[in-house]
Write a structure and sequence with these properties.
462 residues, alpha+beta, eight-stranded mixed beta sheet, 27 strands
């Protein structure tokens, strides 16, 4: 099966050994490897059980490990067999993805260091890093969103919905769990992703038609619609219906009387409510075309499409996560302090573990030392082989003894390695001390494989 990189025609590579995905998500990168090599990945490792469950569904013949990468012994995982392809992948967006900056939306490939972007904390923060890679792409679509393309590992700000029984109302209340960052590969239908709704000053949009006063009473009505309401909209009828338990009819009737009708026909800021009892509940309905249109536009329609607003973020349900079977050049940015930005209107994290946003180096020691975990696996690869490793882009072709670097190797004229190798124990390391550690690492890799044409490429200076 031909093995090609960056669209160039290469000699066929015979893959008799194992294919290993060290940082497997739900299977996007593994799918790309299978498409390129003509056979599935043999071993996949991820510490996230949800990711491994989905990966196993997409790749049933793969041997899966739900463990930290440091806990998996290569000899055990490989059963002593040699590895031909070793993969660990980055997270990014393709060219053309729009990023919200203080100057408006701009394509991600045009973002430069120093630009200001909006973060999940609804404040402008400076871009301190830009990077690229080549990745398979997923497409994620949600309510009111046409979809965006992203690499499988890129984190999104996500909340899960749950139902809680309200004994006094004899019905379920709908609410959301606390937010957390999750990779794109494990996102599912029914989960909620976040979009900013304050920038930073916001006015309530006017209700069309005969209008309504934009006050706290209108916001209460919108909240009640989200929890217990629905709408009907036809060419001749526009109806808002609020449902309640029969035990709360009196209190709800009193609240809905805040918009009294003075004459025979309701005018601006007036609502005429009609009541009807059903077998299990009680309903209040009113006719107001502009109000129904306003509620649908800003809060959604039907239970599966309604959105939640809390503080500065609107939460809308995800509809579809699917593979595109495309492998393209992708881009990522690092943002100071908040480590997040807005892509196509959705809140996302920047490069999660290798961010420079908290001080210029990978934030956690076990993350900083991931490169050495890759080197440990290199002992089980055979020559010629592929050490296709992770994070950061090829920003400049210079040899530089940096703490965080790329090492690119060519074997027999074939580009076979993009390796991100940060040295261990870099907390407090001065730039002048990085050279000897990096040199030792290169020598270690060369000792494992007598590689030809190796060069170091600076990824992000320490």
């Amino acid at each position: 099966m031909p093995f090609a990189i960056a669209g160039k025609r290469k000699k066929p590579m015979t893959i008799n050994g194992l294919i290993v995905d060290l940082f497997a998500g739900a299977g996007g990168a593994s799918l790309g490897l299978e498409m390129a090599l003509g056979r599935p990945v043999d071993v996949a490792i991820n510490h996230n059980p949800e990711a491994v469950v989905i990966h196993a569904a997409n790749h049933p013949t793969t041997w899966h490990f739900i463990q930290n990468i440091y806990e998996v012994l290569p000899r055990v995982a490989t059963l002593g067999r040699p590895v031909d392809i070793l993969w660990a992948s980055p997270d990014c967006f393709p060219a053309g993805t729009l990023i919200l900056t203080d100057k408006g939306y701009r394509a991600i490939e045009s973002i430069k260091k120093g630009d200001l972007v909006l973060t999940h904390k609804m404040r402008w923060r400076r871009v301190i890093e830009c990077s690229t890679a080549t990745k398979p792409l997923l497409e994620i679509r949600g309510h009111g969103h046409p979809g965006l393309l992203v690499s499988p590992e890129h984190p999104f700000l996500i909340r899960d919905e749950y139902r809680e029984w309200n004994n006094s109302r004899r019905s379920y209340d709908h609410a959301l769990h606390d937010e957390e960052w999750r990779p794109a590969s494990i996102l599912q239908k029914g989960q909620f992703w976040g979009a900013p709704c304050r920038f930073p000053r916001e006015t309530i949009p006017k209700v069309p038609g005969r209008g309504m006063a934009e006050d706290e009473n209108l916001m209460w009505l919108a909240g009640r619609y989200l929890g217990d309401g629905w709408t009907r909209l036809t060419e001749t009828r526009a109806e808002l219906v609020i449902t309640c338990g029969k035990h709360e009819v009196m209190s709800l009737r009193e609240t809905l009387s805040k918009w009294p009708r003075a004459g025979e026909r309701a005018q601006s800021n007036e609502l005429a409510w009609h009541e009807r009892s059903t077998k299990t509940a009680y309903q209040f309905s009113t006719n107001h075309l502009g109000l129904v249109q306003w509620l649908r536009e800003h809060f959604g329609h039907r239970a599966e499409s309604k959105t939640y607003r809390e503080a500065d973020i609107e939460w809308a349900p995800i509809r579809v996560t699917s593979s595109t079977e495309r492998i393209e050049k992708v881009f990522n940015i690092g943002v100071e302090e908040d480590e997040s930005y807005i892509a196509e209107g959705i809140i996302v994290h920047n490069c999660r573990h290798f961010s420079k946003a908290k001080g210029g180096a990978p934030r956690e020691r076990n993350i900083r030392e991931l490169g050495w975990a890759v080197v440990r696996w290199a002992h089980y690869t055979r020559r010629p082989s592929a050490l296709i490793a992770r994070r950061r882009s090829l920003r400049c072709d210079i040899i530089a003894p940096m703490a965080d670097v790329f090492v690119q190797y060519e074997i027999s004229g074939r580009l076979l390695a993009l390796g991100y190798y940060p040295a261990p124990g870099l907390a407090g390391l001065k730039p002048g001390q990085a050279g000897p550690i990096f040199t030792a690492l290169v020598l270690d890799v060369r000792r494992i494989h007598p590689l030809r044409g190796g060069r170091a490429v600076s990824g992000c200076p320490h």
